Amino acid sequence: MRVLTCLSLEHHFPSVILAALVCILSCLLSLRLQRRSERSNGGVQVAWLVITAICLSAGIWSTHFIAMLGYRPAATVTLDVDQTALSALIIVCGTIVGSYVATLSWSFARALAGAVVGLSVTGMHYVGMAAYDLDALVSWDLRYVIASVVLGVFFASLAFEVSDRFDKGLKKLIPGLLLALGVVSLHFTGMGAMVVIPLGASEGLNPVTFQILAFTTAVATLVVVGAGGIGYAVEAGLRERSDRRMRHLALHDIVTNLPNRACFSAMVDHAIETRAGKRLAVLMIDLNRFKEINDVWGHQAGDTVLCDIADRLRGHERPGGFAARLGGDEFGIVIPVEDEAALTEELNLIDSLFQTPVRHADFEIITSASLGVALCPDDGEDRETLMRNADLAMYKAKTDPLHRIQQYEHALGEAVRQRRELAQDLRRALETSQLKMHYQPQIDLKTGDVCGYEALVRWPHPVRGLVSPAEFIPLAEANGLIGRLGDWVLETTCEEVARWPGSPKVAINLSAIQLNDPHLVGKVLQALVSTGLSPTQLEIELTETALIHDLRQSLSVLRRIKALGVSMALDDFGTGYSALETLRQFPFDKIKLDKGFTDGLSDGGRSRAVISAVVTLARNLDIPVLAEGVETADQLELLNMVGCEQAQGYLIGRPAPAENGAPPAVQDVMWRPAEPAATHYGS
User: What percent of the chain shows pLDDT beyond 90?
Assistant: First the structure.
């Protein structure tokens, strides 16, 4: 009741309304600025934090003093300028700290930021009231003082806390209104806490005090509207233009300004949905000899060709049709189809667009293109099918220079269908245990003893017969089955080898996709634990190509696997990107020399020199070298001469399944131990 009495009897009501409006305006604007600062970073965020603090502190300060101008105590009033300045400093510092805290990633940061702002408003209010010197006895009702602090802090905390939840449409006004409610309730509840008993007759407000307060209020309000409103509006306009530009760049090709592949895909989907029973033709177009244009005339000439063709396609667009650059020298077009004759005529016109020479500098560039066409719904009813079938037709057109335009035929999709069926068969093979593990022995050239085995997966297809790993492993990678295949190979190999006598070593190949599996280390550990295979019996083989995808991730995974006690081998050494750098960074225990070097041993001295150099390097690194693909006794003898420690190949033993819980046998190989000091091949 005291608050209502104070408002109705001791305040000039229009001033109260004005103070409330200023408060609402500044709070609404400031919390929008606060959200902008939270979405920014670096120097931009600092700038928005400063603007937010200025607008919020100026608005709240204006609210306080406009309301004070409306206060009509029955006593003479004077103003302490120092304390007034101190109250301004308190609110400025408080809003800066609060705005910064709100940008932190703590779970309670926004609520804490609101509390900081609420407390700073409390401090500003009561210091400002202390600056309001009355010729009267002043007493305070502690209950109202506490209530004012609680109301201010509660609503300010609530406003900041919900600012990220109410951020769209009219709901984004809610946080600002809550903050304004907190400021207003704090102020007028605090005013209600003050009881004034005049000591003499009132002379009204001092004119000097009135002018200072009026000027301060006007300046603060201008700061709020000027710095905040204009800054926010300008930034919002710039951001909107930037967003439009970014959206355009995201959906259009930079060189030709035609729609890009992402935009084309969305447009094709829309065209299919709205075709209303009409037929559509989807064209995939590839420029012929475009690489030659770039190589001969330069990339600037290539860009000129692309831009010229893009202009021609734009000029040729029909109602309901559109064109796009899908990437490189590939274009896509969609056109509505009335009948076969109209389609043929349209295709010939489009083909002619690519036959006209392009002028660049002082010369003309002759172009041509291959066109593939798929019709909706004849050749497919969805975008993916239509674009794939048009692609197949386009590649068929590229192989036939006499027919630059090729419509999709069912036979073109036969190869795709077969690959699809084979992928389904592979999925079933994994589910029904059709796959088998074979093992190829490796021997130590110093002793002639078996030093290990390489595990190789085989697929005896019930209809197609033995399917080559070179065919089904890429198929597994392309269809997301390589993870399941790799897990099966790891588990099956560990289970079978664990039953073999003598604790032999076995090597398992990992692909680049498996190496990126975050659970790979756990899977290796689980396979070892569940089968009882010793970690020292397991070796992981990786190629440089698998490692190069993410060197840091690969190194981390390999170190963790090696920490289990599992050894590492670098497969196909000498065919990757940076063999020496790979050896320097990764903890390999063995180098497997690519079969190509072994095949070249009989062709002359170069391969021998390379192998000898690798053996010398590996010996200095204390890493054994194993030569793959040994098929003749001469190759084995030469490897022995250059000091290669281990060998693997058909001469030693072909991959074969384990039988009766034992590894496959090694063929009888005539060999001669290497001389201990031999590091180079003989003459």
Answer: 25
Q: Are strands 330-337 and 363-365 parallel, antiparallel or unpaired?
A: unpaired
What confidence tier does 562 reach under pLDDT thresholds 50, 70, 90? very high
Contact at 8 Å (CB) between 102 and 43? Answer: no
Residue positions counted in the chain: 683
pLDDT at 564: 94
Lowest pLDDT segment from 209-213, 350-354, 619-623: 209-213
Is the pLDDT at 287 greater than 60? The verdict is yes
| Residue position matching structure tokens 């304390």 | 83
Note the pLDDT of residue 645.
Answer: 92
- C-alpha distances out from residue 172 to 107, 183, 224, 276, Å: 21, 18, 19, 41
Type of residue at 142: L
Q: Which residue has the higher pLDDT, 93 or 77?
A: 93
- Dig out the tokens for 135 from the structure: 């010729």
**CB-count exposure of residue 256 (10 Å: 0-12, 13-18, 19+):** buried
Give me the residues paired with residue 453 across strands: 441, 506
DSSP, residue by residue, 77-107: EEE-HHHHHHHHHHHHHHHHHHHHHHTS--T
Alpha carbons 17 and 259: distance in angstroms, whole number: 54
Give the pair of three-digit tokens for residue 462. Answer: 């019930």
- The answer to whether residues 648 and 667 touch, using CB atoms and an 8 Å cutoff, is no
3-state secondary structure of 223: helix
Distances (CA, A) of 440 to 374, 471, 658: 48, 20, 10
CA distance 379 to 377: 6
Residue 676: per-residue pLDDT = 43
Structure-block tokens of residue 74: 């029955």
35-39, 120-124, 229-233, 440-444: least confidently modelled range? 229-233
- The DSSP line for 222-239 is HHIIIIIIIHHHHHHHHH
